[in-house]
Amino acid sequence: MTAGTKPVGTKTADAVVIGGGIMGASAAHFLARRGFGRVVLLEKGRLAGVSTGHSAAIVRTYYSNSITLELAKRALHMFENDRDLLGGDCGFRPIGFLLLIGERLRAAGEHILESERRHGLHVERLAVENVAELAPPLSLDGVSYGILEPRSGYADPTRTTENLVAAARPWGLEPRAGVAATGIRLHGNQAVAVETEDGTISTNVVVNAAGPWAGQVGAWLGLRYSLRWSRESDLLVEKPADFGELPVVSDPGLRVYLRPCGEDRIIAGLGAPKDIEPVDPDDCDPGLDPEMRERIERPLFERLPALSRARHLGGYASLYTITDDWHPIVGPEPGLEGYYAFFGGSGHGFKLGPPIGEALADVICGETPEIDLAPFRPGRFIDGEPLTSAWGEGNRG
């Protein structure tokens, strides 16, 4: 078949988004909201079925580079106004986000504190005694001070994704769960169609939001993305009686994070700076193995001794898709028309997905977004301009 020729029976769309996680759902939602026309969202499994659905879904703003901080600020506003901006109640619980800072990370913590305040965010520096008042169950050995984001918290990642999709249906979004993309066709350097298991969709706009499989999608066009994958695990424990309330807690010194999960459970995982647990995206065991359970429990119980007596409720594992600087790859590829990258959340894609999707929709529509996505452009590594973090390597901060 000649490139660019429209096969008999080909369906048409104004845009096709490949991948039904938070990033794909966000891009599709905001394109449809902008009145772009018929937007088809392809997902080979179910919406939020892999990385997104297993996200801890923490919504916080502690970042040390300007672009990510601005996006996180926008994300917080979106979740605070989820019914108007994200399509419905996303289960956002603004219980606060508490960062525990030890002496080794004092300078990084001060940098974060200054950055957040400079960007107009309400953030508080807490003395150790004030941290103890806020979160009595915590053991504060080795903690020099705390940073509190009182407006932050967590959301429901699956509900958020489903809301984005459902709300945009009247505007032209057509979700196709259970339908995998199998190729992208070009006419010259212009995207003209997406091949699927269910036939061909003619389109001039394709968004690659395929998460762990984004590299495979890019390879259809001869693109080679530098991506790694990590098996990321979380465990669940029963909240002890008389335990009290906690905000979301991140402890970069012990490299552990935790948050409430409903009324009677605590979810916890290894925190940043992160070590990569290499995995094949097509062969990732979704269970929590005993070794990883022990690795999470060790710092968790050190920081929260009461949980060492709590009932273990299981856990799970999923995937991080990690770029070379631990920040997403977003935007058009030089030399290709109608193709846009949107993947590589590296563990913080959930909160950033909606504001990036909003800004990317502006770019696709030929408008200038309020938040410039150029720092996330695919070519930044070739240009020698990777993003950096005050926390160092293996971190998204």
Secondary-structure blueprint of this entry?
Elements: E1 11-12, E2 15-18, H1 22-33, E3 39-43, E4 58-59, H2 66-80, H3 82-85, E5 97-101, H4 106-118, E6 124-126, H5 128-134, E7 145-149, E8 153-154, H6 157-168, E9 173-177, E10 181-187, E11 190-196, E12 199-202, E13 206-208, H7 214-219, E14 228-238, E15 248-251, E16 256-261, E17 265-270, H8 290-303, E18 312-322, E19 329-332, E20 339-343, H9 349-364
Parallel strand pairs: 1-12, 2-3, 2-13, 3-9, 5-15, 13-20
Antiparallel strand pairs: 4-8, 5-7, 6-7, 10-11, 11-12, 14-17, 14-18, 15-16, 16-17, 19-20
Helix pairs in contact: 1-6, 1-9, 2-9
What attributes characterize this protein structure?
D-Amino Acid Oxidase, Chain A, domain 2; 2 domains; eight-stranded mixed sheet; 397 residues; alpha/beta; six-stranded mixed sheet
CATH topology of the largest domain: FAD/NAD(P)-binding domain
Query: What portion of residues belong to β-strands?
Result: 25-35%
Provide the number of structural domains.
2
Distance between the termini: 48 Å
What is the number of E strands? 20
**Gyration radius, to the nearest Å?**
21 Å
In helices, the fraction of residues equals 10-25%
